[in-house]
Each structure stands twice: as structure tokens, then as C-alpha cells.
Inverse folding.
């Protein structure tokens, strides 16, 4: 008799857990921000604050990698693209966005654009970006918009002093040069804003890949 009661209790608990899981999955589909890390680099606007707030509650205890990644990307976009706020408020928002990105990467680490997003948040707050940028290279290929943003992040930070990243960044620079008509002004702007090591990286790569563009860069 006691065994039957125990089996019934286990069955009821299992049914409750499954029902809760199904309910969370359904709610997650409704609240998941329609914004991926790659959208941050294509100019897409992030969701508004109300939609982010709706996703925040579920993201706090969710194990859904896509939900966490989308939520983190939307938070990061709000920090990186949003209007300027007081220094203290912006620092707090940056830390919250970094925490969301790290939580997503712990569950689903093979997301190169999200690793780059972490690096950009770290750059904004004056932290070391090299480890996050390196992970963005090591976890997979990225679209050209993401690759160019990575070039800009590398050349404007201490990441340009890392020998491994320098080799990897050359591929991104060549990809941007393959669409030179689109990226030429952006590459020039990246060169102007680059560190001395970043400038050297751009000059060394373009000297081999596109000597004419190399001559253009040297004018700035």
C-alpha cells in the first residue's frame, strides 16, 4: 500500500514538473526577444524596455540557450546603442548586460557574435577585451557585418597586441576589403580611431591584400 502511494506521489510530482516545463517553454516563446547577437551589428533596433522587462523574469531561471542569448543581445544593444546616460547609470547597465551575456554563454558557448558583444561591453567599461575577442574567433565563422565590428574592436584595443588575434584579424580585414565599396569609409574611420598597434595591423594587411587602399590609409 505504501509503495502504491509513493508511486502515485512520484507520478503526480513528475506531471507537475512536466507541466511547469511546458508552461515555461510556452511563456518563453511569447517573451523571447526577437533580437539575436548578429542583429546588434546589422543596425537592427533592440526591443523596447517593456519587452526586455517581460523577458527578464524568465531569463533569471531559464536554461533555454536561445532565450538567454537573445535577451543578453538585446540588453547589450540597449547599452551599446542607446542614448548616453550618467556615468554611474551607464556603468551599472553595462555590468548587468555583461552578466546576462555571460549567463547565456555558460549555457550555450558556441556563439561567436555574442562573445564579441561581451568584448565590446568590456571595451566600453575599460576592461580587457582580448579573451572575449579571441573566443569570438575560436567559436565559429561570422557574417561580414560582425567581422568588420570585430576589426574595429581589435584595432582600437589592446587585442591588437596579441599575436594570435592579429593573425585571425587579417581574415576579417580581407573580408571587408572584398566589399571595399561598402566598407572603405568604415575601414578608414577604424584606422583613424585605432591604436598604434591597430594601425600597424591594418597597414600590414592592406599592404599585401590591397596596396592601393594601403596608400589611401597612409594619408590619414
Amino acid at each position: 500500500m505504501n509503495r502504491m502511494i509513493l508511486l502515485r506521489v512520484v507520478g503526480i510530482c513528475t506531471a507537475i514538473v512536466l507541466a511547469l516545463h511546458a508552461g515555461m517553454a510556452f511563456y518563453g516563446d511569447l517573451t523571447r526577444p526577437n533580437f539575436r547577437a548578429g542583429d546588434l551589428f546589422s543596425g537592427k533596433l533592440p526591443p523596447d524596455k517593456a519587452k526586455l522587462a517581460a523577458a527578464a523574469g524568465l531569463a533569471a531561471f531559464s536554461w533555454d540557450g536561445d532565450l538567454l542569448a537573445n535577451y543578453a543581445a538585446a540588453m547589450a544593444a540597449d547599452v551599446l546603442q542607446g542614448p548616453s546616460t550618467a556615468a554611474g547609470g551607464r556603468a551599472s547597465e553595462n555590468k548587468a548586460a555583461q552578466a546576462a551575456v555571460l549567463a547565456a554563454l555558460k549555457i550555450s558557448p558556441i556563439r561567436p557574435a555574442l562573445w564579441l558583444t561581451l568584448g565590446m561591453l568590456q571595451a566600453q567599461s575599460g576592461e580587457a577585451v582580448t579573451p572575449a575577442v579571441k573566443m569570438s574567433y575560436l567559436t565559429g565563422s561570422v557574417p561580414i557585418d560582425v567581422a568588420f565590428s570585430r576589426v574595429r574592436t581589435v584595432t582600437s584595443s589592446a587585442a591588437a597586441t596579441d599575436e594570435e588575434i592579429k593573425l585571425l584579424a587579417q581574415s576579417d580585414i580581407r573580408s571587408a576589403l572584398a566589399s571595399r565599396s561598402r566598407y572603405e569609409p568604415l575601414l578608414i574611420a577604424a584606422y583613424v580611431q585605432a591604436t598604434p598597434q591597430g594601425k600597424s595591423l591594418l597597414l600590414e594587411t592592406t599592404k599585401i591584400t590591397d596596396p592601393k587602399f594601403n596608400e589611401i590609409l597612409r594619408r590619414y
Remarks:
- The chain is about 75% helix and 0% strand.
